[in-house]
Specification:
single chain; 409 residues; mainly alpha; 80% helix; globular
């Protein structure tokens, strides 16, 4: 099998970074189409929103499984198979009006994207060390934000021009194109496969989860990303039904949301050497103040301007927090690249899905004030986790010797 070495590492790095936003594309490209899908498929908005939740749950849970599998079978071949499966399922969704089948395909897509993303995150841990690894892991959320920036913008155009099915045709073509590129240029990045052992995988997950800072980091990632997903689920109905604007406007607003997240991630990279805990506390405390002010102000006046104020202030600070915690968690256990990246991605995705689904059901988000209340719940949870956790600082930390011996026994 072709392997990645110094001669082809740069091109494979570009390809890996190009695939990082795929999960965002799979979630966000059809957000402007949610109301039209409900009409065309003759169902309720909640039934269509479930396609988002099913994808997130499948994507999150699958990463818990995928991490151990790709440490055994490598990154390259599972990644190729997953891209084909994702492409086929996208085309199938586009050409069916059977809602239960769409649900099943979204679950399949969640698994396929999990394989792709975990493989590509593991690539960086396989191939880079030290400051180079930190540079790339801190870049993940900035690159990932391309999905929320570009996807809804494209989705609004696709919806207005060709209807909701064109979004999934685009996803199928996107994955198929990268599959072809990988066939000709990709290779295996893992140096030494690990034997498949359910006990070893379970033990390694247990030892990572029992580290309070690692578990808190996954929780904060879940809380922070739930804000962005909550906005994605609620914005089409707030913009198109409440403010009576077009799906294209929903796409532009989602693009602005992605720019806000990227802005926060970029600031995080600039301040990468600043004290870790201090900058998290400041960012989260600022979110609390901002959420309070915005809730009070939107109680008296609501418009597209106030909604975008929500988005920029809270999503940029959220992107800042997310980027710091993603880099922290991914470099916490570098000797278990696949398992660690799978656990981080799976753990926070499950937390995100549960929180966003509960908040949509418990808080009736019919206006911007209600959206602000839901945001406030997530922000307070984030601040409490940051303050109450004892964080490790300095260089990347690894398992203690005793833990490592247990896991390799």
């Amino acid at each position: 099998m072709r392997t990645i070495n110094e001669s082809n590492i740069r091109w494979n790095t570009y390809v890996a970074l190009g695939l990082i936003p795929l999960s965002g594309f799979a979630m966000d490209v059809y957000i402007p189409s949610l109301p039209d899908m409900a009409v065309q498929l003759n169902t309720t908005p909640a039934a269509i929103q479930l396609t988002l939740s099913l994808f997130i749950i499948s994507y999150g849970v699958s990463q818990l499984i995928v991490g151990g599998l790709i440490d055994t079978y490598g990154r390259y071949r599972p990644n190729l198979a997953a891209m084909l499966v994702f492409s086929a399922s996208s085309f199938l969704i586009a050409y069916t009006k059977n809602l239960p089948l769409i649900y099943v395909m979204r679950v399949v897509q969640g698994f396929a994207v999990a394989v792709i993303i975990v493989s590509k995150r593991s690539f960086f841990v396989d191939m880079y060390r030290g400051d180079q690894l930190k540079k790339y892991t801190s870049l993940f959320s900035v690159i990932w934000a391309i999905g929320p920036i570009v996807a809804p913008f494209l989705g609004g155009f696709f919806q207005t021009t060709w209807g909701w099915t064109s979004n999934f045709i685009f996803l199928g073509c996107f994955s198929l194109l990268f599959f072809i590129v990988e066939i000709f240029t990709g290779g295996e990045s893992q140096k030494a496969p690990q034997p498949l052992s359910v006990r070893v995988i379970a033990d390694s997950y247990f030892h990572m989860i029992k580290k309070p800072d690692f578990s808190a980091g996954m929780g904060i990632l879940g809380f922070t990303y739930a804000m962005i997903l909550l906005y994605g689920m609620a914005s089409p109905f707030l913009i198109e039904h409440r403010l009576h604007l077009s799906p294209a406007v929903t796409g532009y607003c989602a693009l602005f949301s992605g720019v806000s997240v990227m802005t926060g991630g970029t600031i995080s990279r600039i301040l990468i050497r600043q004290p870790f805990v201090k900058k998290l506390v400041i960012a989260s405390g600022l979110q609390v103040v901002l959420a309070t002010v915005i809730i009070i102000s939107t109680f008296y006046h609501q418009s597209l301007v106030t909604l975008m104020l929500y988005v920029f202030l809270l999503h940029s600070t959220g992107g800042f927090i997310f980027n710091n915690l993603m880099s922290y968690c991914l470099t916490r256990f570098p000797q278990y690249a696949g398992k660690a990246t799978g656990l981080v991605g799976g753990g926070f995705s499950v937390v995100t899905s549960i929180l966003s689904t509960l908040l949509v059901k418990v808080v009736s988000i019919t206006d911007q004030t209600a959206l602000g209340v839901a945001y406030a719940v997530l922000i307070i949870g984030t601040l409490l986790l940051i303050v109450k956790t004892k964080w490790k600082t300095g260089e990347s930390v690894v398992f203690e010797t005793a833990d490592r011996k247990q896991l390799t026994a």
